[in-house]
Amino acid sequence: MGQTKNKTENVILVTIDGFRWQELFNGADSSFLHNKKLVENTAKYNKRYWNDNLIERRKALLPFIWGTVKEKGQIYGNRTLGCFVNVKNPYWFSYPGYNEILTGFADVRINSNEFGPNPNTSVFEALNKSNEFNGRIATFTSWDAFNDILNEKRSGLKVNAAFENMEGSRSDSKLALLNEMQTKLPDIFDGVRLDAITFNMGFEYLKEKSPRILYLAFDETDDFAHGGRYSDYLNSAHYTDDFLKTLWSWVQNNPTYKDKTTLLITCDHGRGEGFEGWKSHGTETAHSNETWFAVIGPDTPAMGEVSKGQYYNNQYAKTMAALLGFDYKTENPVGATIDSVLGK
Ligand SMILES: [Zn+2]
Fold first, then answer.
1. Helix, strand or coil for residue 309?
2. pLDDT 10s digits, 101-141
3. Could you give the C-alpha distances from 200 to 9, 30, 140, 158, 280, in angstroms and in order?
4. How far apart are CA 175 and CA 60, in angstroms?
5. What's the CA-to-centroid distance between 250 and ligand 1, angstroms?
6. CB of 30 closer than 8 Å to CB of 209
7. Ligand 1 centroid to 213 CA: how many Å?
8. How far apart (Å, rounded) are the C-alpha atoms in residues 151 and 65?
9. Measured in angstroms, how far is the CA atom of residue 227 from the centroid of ligand 1?
10. How far is the CA of 168 from the centre of ligand 1 (A)?
11. Where does the pLDDT of residue 2 fall: very low under 50, low under 70, confident under 90, or very high at 90 and above?
12. Other Cβ atoms closer than 10 A to 333
């Protein structure tokens, strides 16, 4: 019997920084949304995001995930149903979290967001060494730490982080407009580009250059949560879901990508419970090691909301490589593939 080749030729990875499984699976939290001390315009946001029916409520917040992805893909991490996703790293914040996602190795040495250049090889760096993927991997991130997290200097990966311009764009192109706009918007999170700019730059790049691997790293959900701005946190999750819808409908209408592309969506860490807990994460904040992920693609059987199992963020790297037909190994022990994503 011959080995069946996967249908996946391209992978798109999306991370939504510190977006909780609680809102993903339950929608807006009424104890926040209905508290006038916490949400200024409760009537407006109640109308937009509240529904007494949980299924309708989460769909109001994330219509693409609870529409297309639920119908045709897989969604993991609903702890209420007995499906658990966690980070393996012992820190529960961003750089250790992204290192784990991208290298498949929860490195205890990486204990700070200012760690500097990552000593570990990411799955993208490993693939970039192959003839097939060399120069065909692109990363667009809102947070400026990704130049170090992906060790741009050593890896040779194309990493467009925070306020970097997209070089080589025509003066009348959308990319030129995005270059122009990104430094003329309020820098409200200090060193973080707004996600709409990151998305549109990445999306334009996808359309123009046809990368085999695209990574979009969004940030706003985490920063709005730290600032206690619940309505902004919900709005950001909601329009990020719309970015995903735009991206996926383009992919599925483009012959280069249609039915040959897998989209994986996840987060770098969770958050605590209660309003004060939600504002924070890290080892002092219980439950902030709890995460989730969702997948849609030609090799991933439609299972919808997965109701059992224990998964870890260190498994995505090897799983993405396996989807592309590669066995990802590095100097470090990496997490195993998620076989249900691969249809095994
Ligand atoms: Zn944070």
1. strand
2. 999 999 999 999 999 999 999 999 999 999 999 999 999 99
3. 23, 32, 9, 16, 29
4. 31
5. 31
6. no
7. 26
8. 31
9. 10
10. 33
11. very low
12. 11
Closest CA to 212 of 338, 326, 324: 324
Cα dihedral 330/73/9/144 (nearest 10): -60
- Residue 147 belongs to what H/E stretch? helix 146-149
Q: Ligand 1 mean position to 58 CA, how many Å?
A: 23
**How far apart, in whole angstroms, are the C-alpha atoms of residue 183 and residue 188?**
11
What residues have CB less than 8 Å from 19, skipping those under 6 apart? 221, 222, 237, 240, 267
Q: What are the pLDDT digits (tens) for 244-288?
A: 999 999 999 999 999 999 999 999 999 999 999 999 999 999 999
Contacts of 182 (CB under 8 A, 6+ apart): 163, 165, 193, 194, 197
Q: Which two tokens stand for residue 199?
A: 């998305």
pTM, two decimal places: 0.98
The C-alpha atoms of residue 256 and residue 172 are separated, in whole angstroms, by: 26
Distance CA 204, CA 138 (A): 12
- CA 290, 196, 159 angle in degrees (round to 5)? 75
Distance 268 CA to ligand 1 centre (A): 9
- Whose tokens are 């992919």? That residue is 251
- Tell me the residue ranges of DSSP E strands in 184-297: 213-218, 261-266, 293-296
CA 336 to chain centre: 19
165 in helix, strand or coil? coil
Instruction: Note whether 66 and 59 are within 8 A (CB).
Output: yes
CA distances from 331 to 105, 119, 248, 322, 334 (A): 10, 10, 34, 18, 9
Residue whose structure tokens are 């000593």:
119
Q: Ligand 1 mean position to 303 CA, how many Å?
A: 31
For 320, the enclosing helix (H) or strand (E) is: helix 316-323
Cα(103)–Cα(138) distance, integer angstroms: 16
